[in-house]
Amino acid sequence: MSRSLNKNALNTIENLTRAQRWVNRPARPCTRHHSSRTTTTDVFSHPASAKYLTSATDAARLPSCGGLPEIVVTGRANVGKSTLMNAVMGRVNLCLTSKKAGRTQMLNFFRIGPEPGKLVLVDAPGYGDRGRQEWGALFDQYLQTRTELRRVFVCVNGTHGLNDHDRAMLQQLDAQCQASGGTRWTLQAIITKADALARAKNGRGLVAQIQHAVFEAAPTCLPAIVTAAAREPHFGIDEVRNSVAEACALR
Ligand SMILES: Nc1nc2c(ncn2[C@@H]2O[C@H](COP(=O)(O)OP(=O)(O)OP(=O)(O)O)[C@@H](O)[C@H]2O)c(=O)[nH]1
Ligand SMILES: [Mg+2]
């Protein structure tokens, strides 16, 4: 019984992975990085060396992290940003996670790779009903001033889809990205908690709907990566790693 249940779950996940390839097709420059056959990049091959560096609460005093290229992960409160970052870093609880929304309240900086490091991942506080205005101000200032920033990942909950806060955030990021012609940083969506979609009959259709809604709100946004990060089997994590490495020109 449990064997066949597992087999069914894995089949559905495989279907989702296929859906991901299909959904990713429109963005030609990035498509090849999202194939489930891509291998984990060397950048993330030393999980033990991933290190918490510092946190920022004050928009006027953002830390210096040695000029390493940076990637920030944003999204609604409780969407799974910190859990995703742990999976990407290959660590269980380097980023603090919680069932309760609003766990991450600062910009938290993590170095990837042995000293002096390859890049910095930044975990951001959540936005939306359960976020707070001051966190929004901190994030806006970070986006506007951080010259090391290479890519902004916007996490969207696979089981809920986009709400008005997500659309507003995507539109705002898209406008900023367009204003710089994509020369400062680029934007990519990540669908989180897709293990729930893998159990749904129409998981593939839901992924396509979310992808469509993201594209409508933010035409410059690179195709969504479909992920499950809370428990095994994870999926989409190598695709996120490859996207990070590509954005930081490390592959
Ligand atoms: N089923 C499932 N649950 C997940 C996944 N990712 C995260 N979660 C759960 O979602 C909850 C919130 O996860 P966090 O990673 O703390 O979310 P966050 O976006 O960092 O939240 P804030 O810091 O509060 O904004 C936790 O209970 C996680 O276990 C996933 O891929 N699948
Ligand atoms: Mg968090």
From TrEMBL:
Pfam family, one: MMR_HSR1
Cross-referenced CDD domains: YihA_EngB
Claim: Nucleotide-binding is one of the keywords in the record: yes
GO cellular component terms attached to this protein's record: mitochondrion
Gene3D superfamilies for this protein: P-loop containing nucleotide triphosphate hydrolases
Start and end residues of each EngB-type G domain: 67-250
Record flagged with keyword Ribonucleoprotein: no
Top-level taxon in the UniProt lineage: Eukaryota
Keywords: GTP-binding, Magnesium, Metal-binding, Nucleotide-binding
GO molecular function annotation: GTP binding; metal ion binding
Name of the protein: EngB-type G domain-containing protein
Organism: Postia placenta MAD-698-R-SB12
Organism placement in taxonomy: Eukaryota, Fungi, Dikarya, Basidiomycota, Agaricomycotina
